[in-house]
Design brief:
4 helices; mainly alpha; elongated; 131 residues
Length: 131
């Protein structure tokens, strides 16, 4: 048998393998940049996969489906950091030291964002321990 007579896979057949019934065949999904015939070093595929992973994490944060205890702890810490300045401002206002109105607007925005993050934290916490 001659070296030239060996059968090789056609490029068209390998493309069909990548996209049919395989979630790794979609750009951004894990496994796409390391599919057959690829090294995994393509910067566009790498960034697309990183963006997909970040989007999945953000989606889990807002839908209350966090399954990682570390991420849940970081979410609670973020909520406490955001709401603490508002609490301290109310305590100072109670002592008679009023802040300018621009500071109150900023503190109310961060405080409500922190309250939203803490509500999300407690929803995730309840879901995490009810499994």
């Amino acid at each position: 048998m001659n070296k030239k007579s060996k059968l090789s896979k056609s490029p068209k057949a390998s493309l069909e393998e990548d996209t049919q019934g395989n979630s790794g065949g979609l750009p951004g999904w894990p496994g796409y940049r390391t599919r057959a015939g690829r090294s995994g070093y393509d910067p566009i595929d790498t960034r697309t996969e990183a963006a997909h992973s970040a989007g999945t994490i953000i989606q889990k944060l807002f839908t209350g489906k966090i399954s990682n205890a570390t991420a849940l702890l970081l979410l609670g810490a973020l909520g406490l950091v955001l709401i603490t300045p508002l609490i301290l401002a109310f305590l100072e206002a109670g002592n008679g030291n009023l802040l300018p109105w621009q500071a109150w607007i900023f503190l109310l925005i961060t405080g409500f964002a922190g309250l939203g993050v803490l509500i999300n934290f407690f929803k995730n916490l309840i879901r995490f321990f009810s499994r």
